[in-house]
Amino acid sequence: MIPAPFDYAAPTSLEEAVGLLNEHKGARILAGGHTLLNEMKIHYIDTPSMLVDLRRIPVLRGIKHAEDGTLRIGAMTTFAEIASDQGILKRYMALAEAANSTPDTPVRNWSTIGGNLAASSVGADLHAAILTFEATLNVFGRQGLRTITAHDFISGGFVLAADEIITSLDFPATAQKSGSAYEKFKNRASGYAVCGVALYAVPASDGTLRECRVAVTGVTNHAIRLPHIETILQGKRPDEELVITPNMISEEQDFIVDLAASAEYRAYLTQVLIGRALKQAIAETTSL
To answer: What is the CATH number of domain 7-53?
Structure first.
């Protein structure tokens, strides 16, 4: 199908982009377009008055590793760039694995981390990894620059103003000898996660888990952390039998029921994938 006519602009600065969004009511940001353009074609959304393409704004691209171990990723950085960055592969493996889990090479080369966040698609792989690493978002608009937590944004607790643009994501430094992993059971039709688990683990000197963070995508309307599961895992040895049941996983959430899977099956998948992700994360710590 063909979308209705719309105007198009490709500004070269953030200030110009914000100005266009203010000037043209109903304008939308184009930050890759994998989701937006498809929704326009099938008339799932009203056609925007203008598409403001961010790909010509250089400050929105790139991956920067700071001396203090922190990481900044520009909002227009593609999945492919994230998945192949050596620093991310070394310190933020779950993020690289989530970016690389998209099965379509053209999509990885075109989709961006900022666009993926803004689209808020159910089962988006990167969202779980972003939550696990406790990232923050930098947002620029007419009122200036502000910072919000990824948790607030992904959970819907924060909504971008019409003229606001995600400029970058900041990731805290990971601990020495930490490991992470992303495990996924995908929807074969869409490639999105029916269930995807990101896990970050920091072992203590005695072999128990000093810290463990777990996030899951595809099982609810947005990616979530599982704090009650994190509490169970912390202080345990990864090689001991962990008593985590599907009922324990889903007891605080309403899991999705659709044609892909029941709520019960999604809870079971979460249990299985937590175990796999933990095994991979611990294996990564021993290889450092």
So the answer is: 3.30.43.10
Q: Measured between alpha carbons, how far is 128 from 133 in angstroms, rounded to an integer?
A: 9
- Supply 154's token pair: 């992904």
Backbone angles phi, psi at 203, to 5 degrees: -80, 150
Strands (DSSP E) along the chain, which ranges? Answer: 7-9, 28-30, 50-53, 63-65, 71-74, 136-141, 144-149, 165-171, 179-186, 193-203, 209-217, 224-225
pLDDT by residue (tens digit) across 51-89?
999 999 999 999 999 999 999 999 999 999 999 999 999
User: Which one-letter amino acid corresponds to residue 26?
Assistant: G
pLDDT digits (tens, 9 = 90+) for 153-198: 999 878 899 999 999 999 999 999 999 999 999 998 888 999 999 9
Average pLDDT, the chain: 91
* CA pair distance 245, 93, nearest whole angstrom: 26
Determine the Cα–Cα distance for residues 195 and 255; give it in Å rounded to an integer.
11
Pick the CATH number of 63-171 from 3.40.1280.10, 3.30.1050.10, 3.30.465.10, 3.40.50.2000: 3.30.465.10
**Residue 141's beta-bridge partner residues?**
144
Q: What is the pTM of this model?
A: 0.92
Q: How far is CA 40 from CA 5, 8, 102, 169, 205, in A?
A: 10, 14, 22, 27, 54
What is the per-residue pLDDT for 105?
Answer: 86
